């Protein structure tokens, strides 16, 4: 099944270019009797500049999907086309390197792209400003809070000059207050930097709060079972009735999917 | 800007108020670390003095602390003493440096190639537990009574511990860091230079520390067993003092050996602590 939704707030109407296209993607781990089919025939196309939330219960292969798009894992079948866009991936843990300062953690991404020393310094400082951590470049990661570390990780991802950002439950380990603020921040950076975001989460409200659309995956194996366009105007609030209403409908569908496994 | 204020406000709250540690704080810390050591030394000297006063052994075999102290005061300013220290420390540094290079090469090779690990992984650990003194008869056969014989055993003693430290450091690099490395496009040498080696550093430093302890022990054993003509090392001085029944001299050199061991240990601990502080593995 193929889903294509275009037209997103924050980007020009002319840009209907597809940034990421998945065609019949399957991923199987292992072989023979112990083989595990993680993803089954997933097709999805993501417009440039759009924000797509990918939602599913445990075992739906959400993380696998992102690993495949990032090129960290080989596909079993199907194709993924990122059309020459640079892709970066963020995880639930910020995974900053503790032996480097905050600024150096951003610079390392630039260095891997062959950016010169002076330019690295300048660009890293700019990117830390983007995530509002301007004065924190000389700190060590452990001196920052969890939310701040995640913002450094975002700056590092931006330093890769990626215009496609894959996010694997990036706010899952944060408290509600911090998460709420980071939603605003991510939304702002997404618009300012004209990113395309694939955002994986198991938090339904978060998916609705952020996404132009929400793609619902089934579990074991992961298949696209439903897709919800989110027509709500931005900026949204996670506790607004509109978000709650759509989240409620999606949750019902998700419960149905989960209980299917209980009966089997 | 309201949103901006919320972000920075939350950051400020989460970081907590800044604590400044003044001079008085530092002095208190030094004192807290020092007095137990001073007390321990005083206790040892006290017990020693009591044993001497009880005349458990004749005074020329077990001299009083004050006699040994006077011997130390006599010996330490002499050129001969510093020649001996220079010779011994030179051997230690040279042997240890070679052991570091060999240990690192073996460590990286074993960590990278699974068949090599299967082949010699447990051999390295076995070598590490071996008392290095058992190598000396063979080393003397191989190299005669020479510097090389001592060096050979020092390296055999230290290299396995250093290799093991590096191997376990590389083994325990968190998978999330490795994934970040792949996302950032780190490959081959750059991966080792920017990720694996720095990430393995804490474990590598403790391997170095252990390697040093083995090197120092092997060296002392070597200097007592392998007397190289003309090389008046600390070991030779110990041997000579025994031959002359010079108990104060003997004890003075034993104390020197102890002090060198402690001094080097302090250096490693400082390195280890600053590393842990930077990584945030220590409470400030």
From TrEMBL, chain A:
<feature type="domain" description="ABC transporter">
    <location>
        <begin position="20"/>
        <end position="244"/>
    </location>
</feature>
<dbReference type="InterPro" id="IPR017871">
    <property type="entry name" value="ABC_transporter-like_CS"/>
</dbReference>
<dbReference type="InterPro" id="IPR027417">
    <property type="entry name" value="P-loop_NTPase"/>
</dbReference>
<dbReference type="Pfam" id="PF00005">
    <property type="entry name" value="ABC_tran"/>
</dbReference>
<dbReference type="GO" id="GO:0005524">
    <property type="term" value="F:ATP binding"/>
</dbReference>
<keyword id="KW-0547">Nucleotide-binding</keyword>
<keyword id="KW-0813">Transport</keyword>
<keyword id="KW-0067">ATP-binding</keyword>
<dbReference type="GO" id="GO:0016887">
    <property type="term" value="F:ATP hydrolysis activity"/>
</dbReference>
<dbReference type="InterPro" id="IPR050166">
    <property type="entry name" value="ABC_transporter_ATP-bind"/>
</dbReference>
<dbReference type="InterPro" id="IPR003593">
    <property type="entry name" value="AAA+_ATPase"/>
</dbReference>
<protein>
    <submittedName>
        <fullName>ABC transporter ATP-binding protein</fullName>
    </submittedName>
</protein>
<dbReference type="InterPro" id="IPR003439">
    <property type="entry name" value="ABC_transporter-like_ATP-bd"/>
</dbReference>
From TrEMBL, chain B:
<feature type="transmembrane region" description="Helical">
    <location>
        <begin position="149"/>
        <end position="170"/>
    </location>
</feature>
<dbReference type="GO" id="GO:0055085">
    <property type="term" value="P:transmembrane transport"/>
</dbReference>
<feature type="transmembrane region" description="Helical">
    <location>
        <begin position="191"/>
        <end position="208"/>
    </location>
</feature>
<protein>
    <submittedName>
        <fullName>Sulfate ABC transporter permease</fullName>
    </submittedName>
</protein>
<keyword id="KW-1133">Transmembrane helix</keyword>
<dbReference type="Pfam" id="PF00528">
    <property type="entry name" value="BPD_transp_1"/>
</dbReference>
<feature type="domain" description="ABC transmembrane type-1">
    <location>
        <begin position="85"/>
        <end position="268"/>
    </location>
</feature>
<feature type="transmembrane region" description="Helical">
    <location>
        <begin position="123"/>
        <end position="143"/>
    </location>
</feature>
<feature type="transmembrane region" description="Helical">
    <location>
        <begin position="38"/>
        <end position="56"/>
    </location>
</feature>
<feature type="transmembrane region" description="Helical">
    <location>
        <begin position="92"/>
        <end position="111"/>
    </location>
</feature>
<keyword id="KW-0812">Transmembrane</keyword>
<feature type="transmembrane region" description="Helical">
    <location>
        <begin position="250"/>
        <end position="271"/>
    </location>
</feature>
<feature type="transmembrane region" description="Helical">
    <location>
        <begin position="214"/>
        <end position="238"/>
    </location>
</feature>
<dbReference type="GO" id="GO:0005886">
    <property type="term" value="C:plasma membrane"/>
</dbReference>
<dbReference type="InterPro" id="IPR035906">
    <property type="entry name" value="MetI-like_sf"/>
</dbReference>
<dbReference type="InterPro" id="IPR000515">
    <property type="entry name" value="MetI-like"/>
</dbReference>
<keyword id="KW-0813">Transport</keyword>
<comment type="similarity">
    <text>Belongs to the binding-protein-dependent transport system permease family.</text>
</comment>
<keyword id="KW-1003">Cell membrane</keyword>
<keyword id="KW-0472">Membrane</keyword>
């Amino acid at each position: 099944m193929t889903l294509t939704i275009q037209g997103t707030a924050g980007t020009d109407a002319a840009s209907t270019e597809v940034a990421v296209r998945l065609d019949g993607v399957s991923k199987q781990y292992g072989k023979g009797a112990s083989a595990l089919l993680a993803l089954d025939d997933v097709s999805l196309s993501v417009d440039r500049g759009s924000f797509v939330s990918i939602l599913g219960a445990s075992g739906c292969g959400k993380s696998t999907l992102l690993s495949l798009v990032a090129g960290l894992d080989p596909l079993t079948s199907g194709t993924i086309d990122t059309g020459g866009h640079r892709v970066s991936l963020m995880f639930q843990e910020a995974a900053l390197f503790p032996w480097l300062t905050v600024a150096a953690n951003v610079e390392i991404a630039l260095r891997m792209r062959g950016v010169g020393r002076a330019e690295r310094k300048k660009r890293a400082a700019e990117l830390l400003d983007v995530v509002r951590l301007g004065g924190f470049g000389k700190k060590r990661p452990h001196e920052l809070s969890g939310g701040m570390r995640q913002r450094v990780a975002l700056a590092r991802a931006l330093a890769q000059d990626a215009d496609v950002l894959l996010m694997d439950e990036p706010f899952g380990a944060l408290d509600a207050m911090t998460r709420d603020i980071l939603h605003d921040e991510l939304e702002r950076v997404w618009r300012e930097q004209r990113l395309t975001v694939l955002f994986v989460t198991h938090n339904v409200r978060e998916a609705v709060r952020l996404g132009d659309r929400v793609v619902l995956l089934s579990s074991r194996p992961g298949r696209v079972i439903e897709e919800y366009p989110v027509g709500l105007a931005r900026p949204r609030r996670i506790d607004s009735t509109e978000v709650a209403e759509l989240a409620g409908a999606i949750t019902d569908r998700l419960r149905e999917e989960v209980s299917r496994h209980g009966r089997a | 800007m309201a949103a901006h204020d919320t972000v920075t406000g939350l950051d400020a709250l989460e970081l907590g108020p800044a604590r400044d540690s003044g001079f008085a704080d530092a002095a208190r810390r030094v004192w807290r670390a020092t007095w137990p050591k001073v007390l321990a030394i005083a206790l040892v000297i006290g017990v020693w003095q009591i044993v001497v006063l009880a005349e458990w052994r004749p005074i020329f075999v077990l001299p009083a602390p004050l006699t040994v102290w006077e011997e130390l005061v006599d010996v330490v300013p002499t050129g001969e003493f510093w020649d001996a220290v220079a010779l011994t420390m030179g051997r230690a540094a040279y042997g240890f440096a070679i052991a570091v290079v060999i240990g690192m090469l073996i460590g990286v090779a074993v960590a990278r190639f699974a068949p090599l690990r299967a082949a010699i992984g447990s051999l390295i650990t076995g070598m590490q537990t071996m008392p290095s003194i058992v190598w000396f008869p063979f080393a003397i056969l191989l190299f005669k009574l020479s510097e090389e014989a001592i060096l050979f055993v020092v390296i055999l003693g230290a290299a396995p511990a250093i290799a093991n430290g590096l191997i376990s450091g590389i083994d325990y690099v968190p998978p999330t860091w490795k994934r970040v490395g792949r996302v950032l496009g780190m490959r081959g040498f750059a991966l080792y230079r920017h990720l694996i080696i720095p990430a393995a550093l804490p474990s590598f430093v403790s391997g170095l520390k252990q390697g040093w302890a083995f090197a120092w022990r092997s060296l002392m054993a070597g200097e007592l067993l392998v007397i190289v003509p003309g090389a008046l090392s600390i070991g030779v001085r110990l041997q000579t003092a025994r031959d002359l029944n010079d108990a104060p001299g003997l004890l003075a050199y034993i104390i020197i050996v102890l002090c060198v061991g402690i001094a080097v240990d302090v250096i490693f601990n400082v390195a280890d602590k600053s590393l842990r502080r930077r990584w945030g593995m220590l409470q400030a």
